[in-house]
Amino acid sequence: MSTTVRYAFRRSLPVMAGYLVLGMGFGMLLEANGYGIGWALFMSLLIYAGSMQYVAIDLLAGGASLLSAALMTVMVNIRHLFYGISMLERYRDTKPYKPYLIFSLTDETYSLVCSGQVPEGVNQKQYYFFVSFFNQIYWAVGSAAGSVIGSVAGIDTTGIDFSMTALFLVVFLEQWRGTKDHTSALIGVGASLICLLLFGPDGFIIPAMISITVVLLLMRRQRGHEQKSGEAAENSENSRKHQKLQKGGAE
Description:
Radius of gyration: 23 Å
Main location: membrane
Membrane topology: Multi-pass membrane protein
Organism: Candidatus Copromonas faecavium
Order of helices and strands: HHHHHHHHHHH
Structural class: mainly alpha
Helix content: over 70%
Strand content: under 5%
Keywords: Cell membrane, Membrane, Transmembrane, Transmembrane helix, Transport
Number of strands: 0
Subcellular location: Cell membrane
């Protein structure tokens, strides 16, 4: 096993612990609504969107229309649009892995991919691929196991759907602990709370995501200007020192 594969597997272990449990919860709920292991594997391999898969159970059971399902999918997964924008540079020149990397970008995979540089000896592009691949395998295995357990054990599934919310909280806390700059996290929490008060629990997600993105883009632009100004001042100072040295040498 290569160094890259071992490193990717080790880094993905916390996600494995969460995805196996969450996947089992999804499989149990799916089985409780009359959809067996085939559906669990199909959705986990071809859809692979944890929170949306939980929502999809109600859509399937309630006979929702394609339009309703499409709109709900956009609302639940709109955050991935912003994830994708932030990954443009990281995923540049990652062929032949890029199509799968785009498909398999989940919240937890995003957290692992963005958490610092890989160590020496680890192929960064392959690391992105194997982290994404391992995470999907964990989810699919958990979903299948949950479906089997649900079919034979008859477990009460009340409250299981809260597990995705719990996972998001864990990811947020890990990212908070992993960096000293909490500006983006505070912006996300603040914008979400304001939009929740303004638009209510059923309509705050999209306004919150748009607000967060606009603020972060403005901050990035401002920091870019500050960085360019600092570089220009440094270049000017270096030029002045160089001219002074040349003048001194000429004398």
